[in-house]
Amino acid sequence: MKLDSLSLTVNGLRMQVQSAGQGPAVVLLHGFPDNHVVWRKQVAPLINAGFRVLAPDLRGCGDSEAPRAVAAYQLQHICADVLAMLDQLGIDKARVVGHDWGAAVGWMLCMQAPERIEQYVALSVGHPAAVARAGILQQLRLSYMLWFLVPGLAEHSLSAGDFYLMHRFTSDRTQVRYWMKSLREPGRLTAALNYYRANVVRALAIGARGAPVRVPVMGIWSSGDVVLGETQMRDSSAYVAQRFRFERIDGADHWLQVTAADRVNALLLDFFAAPSSSL
Predict the structure, then answer these.
(1) Which residue of 91, 127, 166, 222 could cross-link 236, Cys pair, CB 3.0 to 4.6 Å?
(2) pLDDT digit string (tens) for 136-186?
């Protein structure tokens, strides 16, 4: 399905946004090491259900501008980009779906600008407080982040052997090819890693505060996720003031919107069909 590619200037940076469909807006926020393409299996079902889909390349990713400073990738700036995008497009309120770092952005949007979020769906990543308090096994699972924080070492390791390690991230070979195409562009792998370098320590502080979310939320977790456990998603219910719905997908890996697309799409449409006031 053909998407319209919009080039916006938000917070002084060029943001590329894929747009398609008519109706209530659904914003799809990708994570590492992705861009808007990771949502390719969600676009048509959402459009056919009567939604307008907006899939931005977040700063540093895809065809959006990549600032050099690590601090430019702090989540507060990413959230500001998303809100500025909505403002430019004249959208007062949107449904949001976030995955990986995009899920972290989505949780922060719910905490900081709940009046702009109709419903929120978090894929893989639970509320920051639930992640921070999920126990030692969860923290061990996240220890790879320490490696990502080392400039040069992480870039060399991930790109070595024609991105050999990335071939092991997911079973979807098409997704890996998209990563390789994008991350071969000069500076793009470093920009993607800057999400970790700008936010890992700050995320602990956000988690410690445990601010409640006053937006209807559905959290979807996949049993094949080797980085994030079920507890951190289930326990997110403690930080959602409105109804929290948990869904488990068996067998899918971390990129569940690709490896379990039909199941994810059915859950999205079911959740979005319910009036927000009844959730």
Answers:
(1) 127
(2) 999 999 999 999 999 999 999 999 999 999 999 999 999 999 999 999 999
Task: Check pLDDT > 50 for residue 278.
Answer: no
The model's pTM is 0.96
51-90: b or e for each residue (b if 16 or more CB lie within 10 Å)?
Answer: bbbbbbbbbbbbbbbbbeebebbbbebbbbbbbbbbeebe
* Band of residue 279 on the pLDDT scale cut at 50, 70, 90: very low
Cα separation, 164 vs 105, whole angstroms: 28
Q: Cβ distance 53 to 43 under 8 Å?
A: yes
Count CB neighbours of 152 within 10 A.
Answer: 8
Q: Which of 43, 234, 25, 239 is nearest to 124 (CA)?
A: 234
**4-278 CATH pick, 1.10.3210.10, 3.40.50.1820, 2.40.50.90, 3.40.190.10:** 3.40.50.1820
What is the Cα–Cα distance from 162 to 164, expressed in whole angstroms? Answer: 5
**Size (the chain), residues:** 279
Taking residue 35's Cβ as centre, other Cβ atoms within 10 Å add up to 25
CB neighbours of residue 163 within 10 Å:
19
CA 49 to chain CA centroid, nearest Å: 22
